[in-house]
Structure formats: C-alpha cells, structure tokens
Amino acid sequence: MALERRGPLRSVSAKRAAELAERGVTWIGSTLARSGPIERGEGWVLRARPLERVGFPVERAAAKPTPKKPRVGGATGLPREALDPTPETAQIVWLRDGGRCVCCGVRLVWEQRGWPFGWSLHHRKDKSLSRDNGPGNLVLLAGSGSTRCHGLATEDPAPFRPRGIVLRSWQDPLSVPLVAWDGIWHLANDGTRLAAA
Questions:
Q1: How far from 41 is each of 5, 9, 10, 13, 177, CA to CA, in Å?
Q2: Are 146 and 135 in contact (CB under 8 A)?
Q3: What is the pLDDT along the chain (197 residues), one digit of tens a residue?
Q4: HEC states along 112-143?
Q5: Are residues 111 and 50 in the same domain?
C-alpha cells in the first residue's frame, strides 16, 4: 500500500531530539509507519500501524492503572454486576422456557444473548426493586431492553402486567402466574414451572 503525504514533515531540532532521547521518549510522527528513517523531503508511507497518536511524543513508561469504581445500580446500592444473573441461572431459565420467548414464542439462539435482535433475560420484578436473580423472577424475552418483546415490556409495561411478565414492587414472582405463549405457569426458583389451575 503506497500513500502520498499531504504536507511536509516537521523535523525535530537536534536539541529537542537529544532532550527526548534523555527522557526515553519515542517520537511518533504519524499514524502510519514508514519503512526506514524519516528524512526531510521523504514522502512515502508504506504500511499502516493502527492506534498510534499523531505528532505527539509518547511516553513508553508503564502507566499506573486506575482503580475501577464499582458501578452501583438502582435503589439496592449494590454493584451492578451483583444485580445480574449468573450464567448458570441463565442456562436454567433457557432450559425451562425451551429456548423461546415467553411473550411471542419465537425460537431463540443461545449464542445471540444480548444482541439487539437476539434474546435477553427479563426480571419480572425489576432488579432495582429487589435483589431477586432466581429463575422464578426471570423469563426469556426476544430482543434487548430496547428492542423486540423486551423493549416493549420495558417501554410500556402496562399491557404486560396482566400476563405476569412485568410485576409491581409488592407482587411476589413465585405466587403470580405467568401467561406465556404456551400456557399459564407458576414459576419456581428450582427452574421448574407448574401449570396454573
């Protein structure tokens, strides 16, 4: 790949080059690497080197890692990761619901979890209102929190409340039946579902 340089190279003075060399700084002249040393008037770029900054001296010393602050979610005050279901729980819910959206019954693909047009786990009782990540509080819904069935349940929960897909803060997920595409079920935290009488 051969590219033409648009402007002349700005050379570094000998004094500045010596100062940078003392500090152990490498001069990055472009986002593209050249095949050899850069001289005045040379203007051909031969191969690309991604993610380098343009025209800045870059310190090569190791940067101190900044400690990550835990993301806190909702009224619980817990780190957001503590509010998410474990992979084992996701698998239990997947098997219980037969790999289908409980709302519309569309077949889902396990590998497409979290994709906008894949599937996601939906907390029947909002995870910001309770710490319940048990299978009885989770259902499979098509889409993400902003697309397809999961997006509809998140944006306008009113039509989903009579079906038990979205619950109020005082309702217990284990006692409120779920009206799914294939029947009416009581969900249990052991990953089973019983037909409602």
A1: 10, 7, 10, 16, 77
A2: no
A3: 455 555 555 666 778 777 877 877 655 454 344 444 444 444 444 444 443 444 444 444 455 566 666 555 555 566 666 667 888 999 999 999 999 999 999 999 999 888 878 899 999 998 877 778 889 999 999 998 888 999 999 999 999 999 999 999 899 999 999 999 999 999 998 989 989 87
A4: HECCCCCEEEEECCCCCCCCCCCHHHEEEEEC
A5: no
**Cα distance between residue 169 and residue 76, in whole Å:** 13
Statement to judge: residues 181 and 131 lie in one domain? yes
Give the pair of three-digit tokens for residue 122.
């939906």
CA–CA separation, 141 and 150 (whole Å):
5
Paired strand residues for 68: none
Measured CA to CA, the distance from residue 190 to residue 111 in angstroms comes to 24
d(CA 130, CA 173): 11
pLDDT score recorded for residue 142: 93
Helix (H) or strand (E) holding 94: helix 87-96
Distance of CA 125 to the CA centre of its chain: 22
HSE at residue 177, side-chain half, CA atoms within 13 A, is: 11
Write out the residue range of the structural domain in which residue 41 sits.
13-59
Rounded Cα–Cα distance for residues 156 and 47 (Å): 52
Q: Tokens 């806190």: give the residue.
A: 72
Query: Is residue 5 in some structural domain?
Result: no
